[in-house]
Amino acid sequence: MQPQLPTYDPKAYEPYANAPQGMPPQAIQHAAPAGYGMPAQQPAMQMVSQQPPEAPQQPKVRIGLDHFNFLAVLGKGNFGKVMLAETKSTKRLYAIKVLKKEFIIENDEVESTKSEKRVFMIANKERHPFLLNLHACFQTETRVYFVMEYISGGDLMLHIQRGQFGLKRAQFYAAEVLLALKYFHENGVIYRDLKLDNIMLTLDGHIKVADYGLCKENMWYGATTSTFCGTPEFMAPEILLDKRYGRAVDWWAFGVLIYQMLLQQSPFRGEDEDEIYDAILADEPLYPIHMPRDSVSILQKLLTREPELRLGSGPTDAQEVMSHAFFRNINWDDIYHKRVPPPFLPQISSPTDTSNFDQEFTSVTPVLTPVQSGKRSIDFPVSLSSPLTQYPVLSQAMQEEFRGFSYTADFA
């Protein structure tokens, strides 16, 4: 039985939700400053007896670039960067995803960016233990920023490259990932980007599913969509065949993930994307003769090409997968509450040690490249005549696309 968890407070999601001076919007791995980002205290109801005087309210400020020092680049792509940052006042660490507005608009990704924020808010709603939490969003004239908890243990791709996982370790990670997918599906979200690279490892040895950019909302049982997206090795056959598909695509990817964790290789291989797609549609995965029967069974049931026959495709969704013999020794309540000792603990030499991230990125100087205009945080309406925006990249109408993006979590 899951614990009673904090309820969703829509007031917490208003643009530029404010917070006490000097304390920015996010905490590393659940460690948020007490009271930061909470809605203003409401006056107590008048009672017959005299109430003690209210504590004075703290001054409020917008969250913005001025709160942070950028320390390192954790990842980089066409979309922008993920940066390690610390707050100037408290030195708390955050991972900040920085996206250029111009790129978002040119690639018709405005709705996708807004959707990513909404999915973060779904993850935030119950502070799910195995989903990456968002502590704030803010924007400048040229960029939007997702301020996320910083997970310093690296991703599972890094760790499997350092050594093959044993059965118990693979089962442990698979169980935690399964509960993350279960929560998403229960909230009408399909993930569509499950892969080792998107599963982060905390210093206490538990996983966090990250990167919600390909998530699709309103995907309840029976709902379908048709967007061609994903990582080639993990894409289900129905996606490749341009068929409409539902949440069963996540269970196919879950099968690929377990296969990779157990065998340190992909079940469907090729020299390029086309060869990988052909293998997904035609080849049968190979299973070593020594592989336990339950492991072979769950992989065969998850890697079933007909989505309606795939394990997890029924109305009970994750419960089908949880009931498989592969997880026979798993106590799901203990997994959810992190009572099972992790099989591995990542190591770092200091809080700012980025050795669990790709040196290709961490060796880059952590700066935001200029995009012609100022870097001040903005509110609406945007004044294009301001001296700080003498050379605006985006028109007023384009800026309006990002109205309401700014946000501070109620627990931050």
What is the count of β-strands?
10
Number of helices: 12
The CATH superfamily of the largest domain is: Transferase(Phosphotransferase) domain 1
Kindly identify the CATH topology of the largest domain: Transferase(Phosphotransferase), domain 1
Tally of separate domains:
2
Order of helices and strands: EEEEEHHEEHHEEHHHHHHHHE
Write down the Rg: 23 Å
Any idea of the CATH class of the largest domain?
Answer: Mainly Alpha
Q: Strands of the biggest beta sheet: in what spatial order?
A: 3-4-5-7-6-10
Strand content: 5-15%
CATH architecture annotation name of the largest domain: Orthogonal Bundle
Percent helix range: 25-40%
Terminal Cα span? 26 Å
Low-pLDDT residue intervals, each spanning 5 or more residues: 1-52, 379-392
What summary fits the major beta sheet?
6 strands, antiparallel
Average pLDDT, all residues: 83
> Which class of secondary structure composition applies to the elements?
alpha+beta
From the spread of the alpha carbons, the general shape counts as globular
